[in-house]
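Our preliminary data section would be incomplete without showing what the modeling component actually yields. Below, a chain of 173 amino acids is followed by its predicted structure, encoded as tokens that our downstream tools consume directly.
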Amino acid sequence: MVLDPGHGGKDNGARWYGVSEKTLNLDVAKRVEILLKKRGIPVVMTRRTDTYVSLGYRAQIANRHAGAVFVSIHFNAHSNRSIKGIETFYISSKGRKLAQSMQKRLAGRINTNDRGSKKHHYAVLTKTRGVAALVECGFISNHWENRRCSTSWFRDILAQEIASGIAAYCNTL
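Predicted structure:
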């Protein structure tokens, strides 16, 4: 299992209302790592600190681990601040199953818009040879969702459902 906390270092990702996406991504990824390890699933992280890692290098890390499942963790933003919700992205049919496994659990537990699982050609997904998905944990451009994403208890819930979705997918292999 390779976890990728999106952005980092010089790449903040989205930044709204004083909240940086890169910080939220790393926090949730570390929480997911702990939960997966408790389930006996070994985890490799693409970054553990606020450092910049190129998209190509993130994929290289994943590709070094044959058969690894790759999940990139993000928070979303939009110029229309009323948009909110959780969505997952994939490239392959196996990636679709992984994305849907996480999306189903997140949407079932979190009171927000279920934006579904969609095919999208993000570089980090197209460059990864194994099963890969990218999860967007909420829109930090939406003031209400930003406040919720900024809380530790909510990031715990996100981590629980992401880890549960990953574990369920891994159990089907």
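Residues 2-170 form a domain with the Aminopeptidase fold (CATH 3.40.630.40). The longest strand covers residues 132-139. Preliminary results of this kind motivate Aim 1 of the renewal.
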